[in-house]
TrEMBL record:
The protein, known as: Mevalonate kinase
Molecular functions (GO terms): ATP binding; magnesium ion binding; mevalonate kinase activity
Gene source species: Thermococcus thioreducens
Top-rank EC class of the record's enzyme: transferase
Reaction catalysed by this enzyme: (R)-mevalonate + ATP = (R)-5-phosphomevalonate + ADP + H(+)
Annotated Gene3D superfamilies: 3.30.230.10, GHMP kinase, C-terminal domain (3.30.70.890)
Family: Belongs to the GHMP kinase family. Mevalonate kinase subfamily.
GO biological process terms on file: isopentenyl diphosphate biosynthetic process, mevalonate pathway
Location in or out of the cell: Cytoplasm
Binding site for ATP: 110-120
Any matching Pfam family: GHMP_kinases_C
Pathway where this protein functions: Isoprenoid biosynthesis; isopentenyl diphosphate biosynthesis via mevalonate pathway; isopentenyl diphosphate from (R)-mevalonate: step 1/3
Active site per the UniProt annotation: 161
Length: 334
């Protein structure tokens, strides 16, 4: 038997980092996906083959006791640890420790770009392996297991990335609970800086600043939470799109300023944000953990001008759509 599962990338529209401190956030799945095939092997070992996971020149395979690198694997090692933990967790759930499982991964999601590639591989792996082992889990349960994997690998995590990857669509998330927001076509452009940030390190860096000066950082996190609640009010209102977009754009700019203030922006990220605004985007901000990775811009009138401005500023633009669909078990072949 061979199972194929796929899970989407995400963008955080509002509330990254503050969501780790129990504040709300809003995120959406987007139409870039990770594909994971799972099948049994006779070696009793976990074997992971990762090809074309958007790390230049990568071909990696490793099993329980052996690791082979065919080329510089860089950030991929972090992603592969999510896969390995995901398989181990599902084997425990299914009481199938010792069963040999091979998973093969391909992904359209750039690694370390703040688009949730680690969460998507964890969710797709849990989906494929749980199906292979005969566990009937809902997408919501798979999202929760994805959160456990993130906590194991990343140390701290709010769980928003695996939740939105498993569930799909547009969600409001707070302390492990999510609610679908009315679906809305958002005219956005995502801009990739070309460099990656480590979510684990960025979350730890914000934590250190918070512990050093809670009286300064706590009000910033509270303000981020208020931005999210205001954005939810705007999204769920029956105002015209023009007014809704204008208000969301202003909230994005404020949220970006606060993310910059807590130290997760970079020169390149800010350059892409400003290039997008100068080209007419009505809002632009970091999306995800920062430290490299991606920004996104809201550009109802001029997506292609904003995409060009991002290119001229040295980034890679992606005009992407919100994906209604989360985890999908694509095929079961016997
Ligand atoms: C990463 O996509 C979002 C962060 O808020 C981390 C998390 O929520 O686990 C930075």
């Amino acid at each position: 038997m061979r199972v194929l599962a796929s899970a989407p990338a995400k963008i955080i529209l509002f509330g990254e980092h503050s969501v780790v401190y129990g504040k709300p956030a809003i995120a959406a799945a987007i139409d870039l996906r990770t594909y994971v095939w799972a099948e049994f092997n006779d070696r009793g070992a976990i074997k992971i083959e990762a090809k074309d996971i958007r790390v230049p020149g990568l071909t990696v395979s490793f099993s329980e006791d052996e690791i082979y690198f065919e080329s510089d694997y860089g950030k991929a090692a972090e992603v592969l640890s999510y896969v390995r933990q995901a398989i181990e967790l599902v084997r425990e759930e299914a009481d199938a420790n010792g069963k040999g499982i091979t998973v093969s991964i391909t992904s359209q999601i750039p690694v370390g770009a703040g688009l949730g590639s680690s969460a998507a591989v964890a969710v797709a792996t849990i989906g494929a392996v749980s199906k292979l082992l005969g566990l009937e889990l809902s997408n919501e349960e798979i999202g929760k297991l994805g959160h456990k994997v993130e906590l194991l690998v990343q140390g701290a995590s709010s769980g928003i990335d695996p939740t939105v990857s498993a569930i799909g669509g547009f969600i409001h998330y707070e302390k492990g609970n999510f609610e679908h927001l009315p679906f809305m076509e958002l005219p956005i452009v995502v801009g990739y800086t070309g460099s990656s940030g480590s979510t684990k390190e960025l979350v730890a860096m914000v934590r250190r600043t918070y512990e050093e000066m809670p009286e300064v950082i706590e009000p910033v996190l509270i303000a981020m939470g208020k931005i999210v609640e205001k954005a939810r009010e705007v999204i769920t209102s029956d105002l015209d799109d023009e007014i809704r977009f204008a208000q969301l754009g202003r909230l994005m700019n404020i949220n970006h300023g606060l993310l910059d203030a807590i130290g997760v922006s970079t020169k390149k990220l800010s350059e892409l944000v400003y290039a997008a605004r100068v080209a007419g985007a009505i809002g632009a901000k970091i999306t995800g953990a920062g430290g490299g990775g991606c920004m996104y811009a809201l550009a109802p009138e001029n997506q292609s001008e904003v995409a060009t401005a991002i290119t001229i500023a040295g980034g890679t633009p992606m005009i992407t759509r919100i994906s209604r669909e989360g985890l999908r078990i694509e095929e079961v072949l016997s």
